Structure formats: C-alpha cells, structure tokens
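Bumping my old thread because nobody answered last time. Still need a sequence for this structure:
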C-alpha cells in the first residue's frame, strides 16, 4: 500500500496547542479552587464542607483530564484530517505502544482514584456510623407521595415539614412504608444543602447522623422515580434556633393534645427465617429464645413482643418493631451490661429487619 503520510511530529504547532490547553486547564483548576460553592448552595450541615471538598478534589483533577483529552481529540482531528489530493486509501501512521505515556495515564488516575477512595472512606462514615452523640432520633418515612416525620414525645407525626434545632446532632431513621407494605416503593431523601442523599427502602431502616449548622429553610427532594406523584414529593426542613424549635415543638404538642398515640410502623418485610439464622450466628452468645428470666448475659427474647410482665423494652418504650429495631441498631445499656450497636455486631439494615421479624415470630 501507498505510504504517503508524513510521520507525525511533535513540532512547534503541537507544543503551542499543548501550551494553550495547559493555560485553559490551569485557569479552570484555579476556578475550581476559588469557586464559592456555599454562595450557590449553602453548606448547612456538619458534613457539607467535607462533601464539597471531595467534589472540589474530583473537579480539580477532572478538569485537566477533560481539557487535554477533548483538546487533543479536536486538534488531531483537525490536523490529520484528509485534505484535497490526499490518497484516500492511505494508512495512518504506524505507531504502536508508548510505554511511558501508557504507564503515566494508568498510574496517575489509579493514584487519584485511590486517594478519592480513602477520603470517601474517612468522610462518609461521618453520617452513616451510629453515634451516641445524637440528641434525638427522628423517624422519616417516605410515602406515596409525601414525607412523614415522627418525633419522640409527639403522639402524632408531622407531614412534609421537618424542624431541627441548629447545632444539635440528630439521628434520622429513614424508611418507606404504606398501610399495606406490599404497596410501598423506594423513595430517596435528599437535602442538597445538607449534602445528604439516602434511599428510603421498604422494610429497611437506614440511620444517618447529621448536625445542621445553618439556620434556614431547605428543600427535601425525592430523587427516586417512585410513581406519578414523584415530582410533587418535595418537603422542607426548617433549621432554627433551639428557642424557635422548642416553641414549634410545644405548639405541635398543644395541637395534638388528646390525640391517641399512633400505631408504630409495621416493618413486615423482614424475613423471619433469615432472622433466625442471624440470631443463631450473632445473638445467642448473650440471648436465648426462652422467657425473659432465662438470662444468659441479656434477657431471654422469646417473649419480647408478647410479654405482659415485661411490656416495656430496656428503653422504657413498649415493644414494637421500630423501637426494637432502634435498640438493635444503636445498642443499649441495661442492668447486666451493654449491648453494642449494629456496627460492632456486624449487622446490616437488612439483618435488623430480619431479626425484628424473627423476634416477633417467637412466642413462648
Ligand atoms: Cu418518592 Cu420520588
């Protein structure tokens, strides 16, 4: 075949283009560093700044990769395109292997991904790991198509408008359910200003821990396409001073006075059989399945849900699915010692749902 191509050259023109790309890249990287994200989307929770740091880190190193890759594609497409009089059958330059280049573009992104992974590993547990520092646990339940908030101390839930005191860590237990859980769907709890986004999954309780740091009203947006009402599924979270929060809370109490306590949520999606296996593997060191008084380290749990003599849990609340799940999740301290939380016990949210189903199925 006819070799009419000149060999490719790293000539003056190539280096000029490289210089231009370097300048563009440098300007954009500088922009990434100084861009005031907070002015466009408030950093309103304890993890917002960390999440934004991860975002900046990704954008900072993503910018040169984007600029050089797209820049050279456009430049080479222009420089080496077929011109009038060129042999249309000509083959391209015969270049194979550039070990130095290939090593560089493999090693550098690998190191960047590794650093990104390590940073994420440090940051993300800040709101996923159970923590004893929370002042309260609030249940947030996704429904078709609204949010329900349950506060300790309120007999009725509050819909669509969540109130939080500024500067106080809270645990938010996220789930989704319907009167018939078979009809429940996955929603997602997203507060952009908190930089927190978490799916709400029927039968699972996912706890997150955040401290709101800026007074203001923020949107809660469902980011899981959950049905026809999905676009309307917007709630709000009002972060206010402790005094304002106390006033709001007192008003709720007054408004709810006389109302009967609502029924706890039914987390019936757990699999009792799977829960039995988890119980045998993780719980039997300290708990048996006999009656309350058949203690190992902790009490026997065979009658946990059906014991008129011990109607209340170690937390003082009556035994119901959500509160039992809460104990397994956060651990508990009783007269005989301390039960560790789910992280220490190596339990997933699914394990907890299964354990609750299993314990409920027991009846001694
Ligand atoms: Cu709920 Cu989308």
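Sorry it took so long. Here it is:
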């Amino acid at each position: 075949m006819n070799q009419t191509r000149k060999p490719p050259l790293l000539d003056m023109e190539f280096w000029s283009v490289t210089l231009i790309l370097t300048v563009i890249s440098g300007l954009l990287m500088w922009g990434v560093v100084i861009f005031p994200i907070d002015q466009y989307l408030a950093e309103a929770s304890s993890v917002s700044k960390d999440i934004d740091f991860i975002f900046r880190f990704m954008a900072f190193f993503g910018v040169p990769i984007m600029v050089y890759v797209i820049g050279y594609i456009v430049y080479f497409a222009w420089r080496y395109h077929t011109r009038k009089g060129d042999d249309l059958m000509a083959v391209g330059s015969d270049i194979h292997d550039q070990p130095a280049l290939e090593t560089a573009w493999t090693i550098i992104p690998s190191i960047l991904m590794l650093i990104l992974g390590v940073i994420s590993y440090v940051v993300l547990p800040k709101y996923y790991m159970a923590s004893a520092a929370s002042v309260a646990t609030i249940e947030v339940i996704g429904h078709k198509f609204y949010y329900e908030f349950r506060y300790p101390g309120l007999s009725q839930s509050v819909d669509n408008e969540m109130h939080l005191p500024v500067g106080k860590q809270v645990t938010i237990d996220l789930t989704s359910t319907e009167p018939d859980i078979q009809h429940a769907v996955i929603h997602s709890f997203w507060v952009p200003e908190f930089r927190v986004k978490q799916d709400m999954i029927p039968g699972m309780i996912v706890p997150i821990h955040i401290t709101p740091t800026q007074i203001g009203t923020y949107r809660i947006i469902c980011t899981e396409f959950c049905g026809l009402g999905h676009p309307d599924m917007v709630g709000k979270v009002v972060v206010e001073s402790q005094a304002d929060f106390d006033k709001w809370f007192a008003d709720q109490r007054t408004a709810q006075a006389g109302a009967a306590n609502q029924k706890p949520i039914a987390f019936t999606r757990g699999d009792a059989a799977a829960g039995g296996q988890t119980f045998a593997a993780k719980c039997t060191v300290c708990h048996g399945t006999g009656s309350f008084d058949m203690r190992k380290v902790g009490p026997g749990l065979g009658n946990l849900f059906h014991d008129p003599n011990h109607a209340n849990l170690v937390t003082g609340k009556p035994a119901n699915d959500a509160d039992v799940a809460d104990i397994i999740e956060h651990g508990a301290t009783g007269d005989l010692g301390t039960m560790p939380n789910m992280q220490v016990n190596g339990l997933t949210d699914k394990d907890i749902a299964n354990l609750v189903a299993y314990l409920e199925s027991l009846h001694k």
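The domain at 272-361 is CATH 1.10.760.10 (Cytochrome Bc1 Complex; Chain D, domain 2). Let me know if any region looks off to you.
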